[in-house]
Give the backbone structure.
Amino acid sequence: MANAFSRIGDWFNERAPGLMPAYRKHMTEYYAPKNFNLWYYFGSLALLVLVNQIVTGIFLTMNYKTSAAEAFNSVEYIMRDVEWGWLIRYMHSTGASLFFVVVFLHMFRGIMYGSFKKPRELVWILGMLIFLVLMAEAFMGYVLPWGNMSFWGAKVIISLFGTIPFIGSTLVEWIMGDFLPADATLNRFFALHVIALPLVLLLLVVLHLFALHEVGSNNPDGVDVKHGPKGNRWNPEKPIDAIPFHPYYTVKDLFGVGFFITIAAFIIFFAPTFGGWFLEHDNFTPANNLVTPSHIKPSWYFTPFYAILRMIPSFFGTAIWGVIGMFGAILLLALLPWIDKGEVRSVRFRGLGFRIALGVLVFSFLALGMVGAGVTSELIPAWFPGADVTTWENAFGRLMVLGYFGFFVFVWIYTRFGFEKTKPVPERVTMHD
Amino acid sequence: MIKRYLSSLALALGLAAVVAPAFAEEGESLPSAGTNVADQASLQRGAKLFFNYCVGCHSLKYVRYSRMASDLGLSEEEVMTNLNFTGAKFGEPVISHMPEASAKAWFGKAPPDLSLEARAKGVDFIFNYLNAFYLDPTRPVGWNNTVFPNASMPNPLWELQGLQVAVHGAAKPGEEAAVEKLTIAQPGRMTPEQFRGATRDLTAFLEYAAEPAALERRSVGIWVILFLAGLTFLLYLLKHEYWKDVHDSH
């Protein structure tokens, strides 16, 4: 048996001599720091969710009908008449939300431990491109069930492009292929959602991983293991504090996968709408251009950016400043390697100012999410009866917008002009378990 | 190590348990409907009410008689003789016979399909709406509703509930008096308690109609979670075994 396997192996090696070296480079001889903690599960989990979205998506397209007249009915057909169709759809819809949960945590890890800093700027930029494509992918996927929130969400988001001077209104018609989101819009969004954007996404993910494997993984201590002492039990040339990705991190990530899909299964089987956050009430009504939902709001994962859009007022007769603010919020994240000039990577050894600023960033981001989702417009009257909701919400929301953008301004000044008092970074990594 | 993982699992599930209901329902909160879709007898009673009082105007276009029969534990004969009054075939969906044009003329608006009503509006809305009709001579059909003011629908269950009237509070100048509470002016065939039970059953039936998969997903879900929890534990042991090398090489 062993002989048969090795003969098959030899057959392939003779014909594709690059396979084994590639496998070694990316798996068995990819040396990763041994001190990864909980935060390091989310990269592999993002990959898992991507595969889930592609596989369940393929099965959904087998029964989904791409037309404004039939789309809504076909989704209900999947939910009721297709064998296990409900499970496939809930896996896809829950997967979409969990994709963002995982990606947000993955990005936070990168900021917290300085994974975006030299020499990993390219890894970070590719990651930000993945995030952008993922947002477009999620938005178009949300339109496909053609519920009333799909329709109005599409209308609001597409009309953002209408704020661009001179070409705005023409651009909006060009994107929709009609004067309202309609059959033409649905068909092109389907094409983009099921083939164009997934191809781009897969390519970017491969590049993200290749870029990472060129420079090597960062770690919670931000210690540069590549330039530290050499010689581990697997290879005398390789960093002392690194271990082969396969099998050590593959089995560890496998455990993370088990943990994660247990929680995902709990949502899929017992709370698939997640109280109206993963699947919204208004989207169980078919698209209707005559009936506006009482609160038009995007899916929860867009709400922080949507709040920035809403909180920035119009000036000089145009609302484009909010749109610039919303996209600027993402652009600033992408530029972080050049904004944060601190030499020390990990938050563990950075100055108090950075720790506080990071806390402010997280708080503002979550608070903006609440503003964008309309939670604050319900909490304010409940907590302060008689208060003017709009005034209070705008005051709070704008403070949080300042908090979000303030992070980037503060970190630049703090690191550019040498205000940061860092702690000494140890030579070797630390393990806590 | 295992302590940390167990505590993080507990933390994650605890967080989900706290966060999910906290954000559960948006909008003003109504008293809970208290439905239970796993209670088959309740669904059967609700179906009986639906097919006696609702299907005259409202369709359930995504619900097939055959599927409903198997989910509610009813035989084909029971459904075809006791519930199907439209002459539809067993495999066909529940479609009301009311012509849409007449419906518009009578009520100003065609009665909506109710297949997804429980998911679009929520069960609490349906339950409280069904209990909140009152006589209002100022409305075209003579009925109004405190949960959905100026609804164009008359109370289809009046002979069960009786005739409910509104007690108005003192009117502020320039405004109409607000409804303070509803009282039964002329009793129906049911006591108020029985009627609440009946509307709860009807709401549960609509909850089932909105998501027939809910019955299956919960019963399958328990086994899936148990399997995954066991698998995760085995994967933990696997990881622990492999990582002995790493911990030894400190």
About this structure: The longest helix of chain A spans residues 183-215. Chain A touches chain B through 48 residues (CB under 8 Å). Chain A has a mean pLDDT of 95.
